[in-house]
Each structure stands twice: as structure tokens, then as C-alpha cells.
Known about the structure:
This protein is α/β, with parallel strands linked by helices. The protein is 25% helix and 16% strand. It has 12 helices and 14 strands. The chain has helices spanning 31-39, 53-62, 66-69, 86-92, 132-139, 169-182, 207-212, 235-243, 252-279, 311-314, 344-352, 426-439; strands spanning 6-13, 41-47, 96-101, 116-119, 190-199, 286-292, 319-321, 333-340, 374-378, 385-389, 393-398, 403-408, 448-449, 452-453. Strands 4-3-5-1-6-7-2-8 form an 8-stranded mixed β-sheet, with helices on both faces. Strands 9-10-11-12 form a 4-stranded antiparallel β-sheet, with helices on one face. Strand 11 and strand 12 form a beta hairpin. It is globular and about 60 Å long. It starts with 5 loop residues before the first strand and ends in a 41-residue tail after the last strand. The model has no long low-confidence stretch (mean pLDDT 96).
Amino acid sequence: xxxxxxxxxxxxxxxxxxxxxxxxxxxxxxxxxxxxxxxxxxxxxxxxxxxxxxxxxxxxxxxxxxxxxxxxxxxxxxxxxxxxxxxxxxxxxxxxxxxxxxxxxxxxxxxxxxxxxxxxxxxxxxxxxxxxxxxxxxxxxxxxxxxxxxxxxxxxxxxxxxxxxxxxxxxxxxxxxxxxxxxxxxxxxxxxxxxxxxxxxxxxxxxxxxxxxxxxxxxxxxxxxxxxxxxxxxxxxxxxxxxxxxxxxxxxxxxxxxxxxxxxxxxxxxxxxxxxxxxxxxxxxxxxxxxxxxxxxxxxxxxxxxxxxxxxxxxxxxxxxxxxxxxxxxxxxxxxxxxxxxxxxxxxxxxxxxxxxxxxxxxxxxxxxxxxxxxxxxxxxxxxxxxxxxxxxxxxxxxxxxxxxxxxxxxxxxxxxxxxxxxxxxxxxxxxxxxxxxxxxxxxxxxxxxxxxxxxxxxxxxxxxxxxxxxxxxxxxxxxxxxxxxxxxxxxxx
Length: 494
């Protein structure tokens, strides 16, 4: 037996920090996560450096930003960089690592340092064959039918789940992780990565969870004064409003109910995982870190999905519980330090008392070091966007058209009023711009002159065709051919 703590990293996909009961949301039910927050520490100011699935996960698994790991755009065939991973580092230190759910690496069967991986990759057999969830559905008598609900991974239509409840990917992910905990190696501490593919669309929640929200009246999404004239938006935002222009205001309540139903389903399933840890006698000696790769705008400011640096896209929920009685995570505390996803790796290594590799850019969430400014960047084309924040003020920069926005999050948490260029924020805007200039790399250096952010010429926006219905999945038995792996589908173009 070992006294070193077990480590459990729980990630969800596309869940905004604001969509939590403990965050003050008026409707969503997250009793399990609320209880975890009461038992641990909430990191209110956690941001995804690049709020897109693949780059965010590369950051969590390597402790690095895109400058090192190489992707801030979403490259589906990018191999993991030649760097020590979180799983590999823990393996070398004697941990037994198991991942269940979504890894989003290429090739999909790359274990990236884990001893065992059980994959659910959102219907991507063309990247390397059936994943483990596909195989499970076939074993249950439903080969290739995981997407027969007809909903889309990159859209906001919704309907109830179409197969038996135990076949839902959220249930499968939970069951698989509980089983892996039970079949652990008792001579080694465990590192368990529980990675749910939801609430990322497709929105196909169980009917039972839709019923919970049947009579709920969700809040109307906020729209900033800067966002009311769609034609005046930066190119990067116009590509988003155009891509999801078919989503109308009267669709919003149904979408919100379906999204919240998906979140509550995960919350309830987490109870089984925690219950398994408790019954196996492991809970008091297990570190639990819960976070998301990015959020979802869900109609705020007329925007959808991710790839932007407004709060609902870039700020993610983060809850940390140390072993029982650990003074570094006293129950019910809120820590307002600036946290980014690169901090996941050094935090877990800190708990395991494993040296942090020299390449890691993140900071331990239980350490003394603090960052004064958090910098972030997403995409390298006409839809590129960059962010700098000191925790109170946030600068968002759209290089195409050289559009800058500044928000005072203390006075205006909904980002309703753009203060860029006003005397009230002149000093802080200059400081945040200087931080972006100093950190510039790659294509960013083409958008800087004489130490100033100058961007690129404005670009006329033209509507986008969507012949493939945002990457719509089809019948997956027999599986689709392994072709076109490097083709990005289902996202606004730049």
C-alpha cells in the first residue's frame, strides 16, 4: 500500500464558469459540484489560454502554452510535442495512470504517458478507428448508432437521448472510471483522468434531465452595448454571428434547458465516482481537481461556442480538494489568483511531491507564486484574438481591423461596456497592451510596429457556406473511411 495521495483530474468540455449553482446561476442544478466547492477551494479567475478543445488539452497535459506545444488554432493531426506529459511524469514517479473519456490527441490511441486509456472521442473514427465507447455500443447491440439522434457536435439543436440510459456517453464514462478505480493496482498511487465529452454539443440529454428543467425560465443572455450593431463587430465576431445566424431568440430557452440538463446529468454521475472512492476507502487520500477546457457563450452578446475571450467562453470552473485535512485547501475558500490551464500539471505534481519539469510554464495553485498578468491567444488567421488580464481589467485585441476592447470586470462583470480608449482605463490599457507586445510570437510579430499593437487591415466579411452541416455525423456502422483527418469541420472560418 502507498501513503502518497491519489490524484483525480476531472475535466468537462465547454462548460462556462458562470453555469454553476455555487457561482450564483439562478437555474442550473449542480448539487455535487456545489458540495465539492464547499469542501475545497474555488479558483474564480481561471482562464483557458486558448479556448478551443485540442489546444486547451495540450496545455493541461504538458503544462505549456501554445508557444511551446505548437497549436493555438485546432490542428486535429498535430502530434503531442516532444515534452514530458503530466501522465508520463507521474508514471515515472510510480503512479498508475488511467484516462477515461476524451483525450483529443493524434493519433487517438497515443497514450501520452497513461498506462491505460478508454476513449470516447465524440465520433471521430476517421482519425484512427473505433474508440472504446463505440465498441461498447456495439457490444450492447447498437453498433454505429451513437449519433442516430441526428444532433450535431457544433450546433445547438436538441432532443432527448435516443438509446437506453446506460448507453449514454456520460453514463459510460462514469461506469468505466468506477470500474477502473475498483481494479486499481493497490501497490501504487492512482492518477485518474475522468474526461467527459459533455456539455459540448450534441445536445441530447436524457429525458429525465430535460424533465427537471421543463418549467424553468432561464435568464435572457446579456448583450453588451458594443455588441448591438452586428455590422460593426470585429471580423472574428462576425464570422461567429454568421455561422450561427440560424439560432433565433425564441430558440434560446430550449437550448439553455437542454444544456443545463446535460450539466446536471454530469453532476449527478460524479456522485457515483465519489461514492466509489469513498466505499473503496480512497476518498480521504485523493486529490480532486475539477475544471473545463473552455466555456460556451450560449447566446451572450449574440455569440456561441468558444474561441473568444469573453467570460463565458474563456473563464472556466475550477475546484480543488486536497487530501482530507490538507491546510492548503481549506474548505469553502475562494482563491482569486489568476489561474490558467497550464497550472493543472504543476499543481498535481506538487501534491504528488514530484519535481516539476523545467519546460512547464504553469504555476502550482497551492504554491506561493502569483502571476500579475495572464496572457492568452487564439487562432492565427483573420479570426485571431488575444487577451491580457490583471484579474480586474481585461484587454481583448482583434488584430484584423486592430480592434481593442477593455472591460472593468469588478464594475462590469457582464462585459457590457467597452472602455477602450477612455481616460478612465488609459493607464491599465497601455500596461496590458505592452504585455501583449512583450509576449508576442509567431504571426503576432507581424501585427506589431514600433512596440505598439497595430494589427492588420480590416477585412470585408462575407457569409460562409456550410454544405457539411457543421461537420454532421452520420451512421457509423460500418465506420467511415480513415480519410481527411486534417480537415477541420464545424467551425467558423477565418
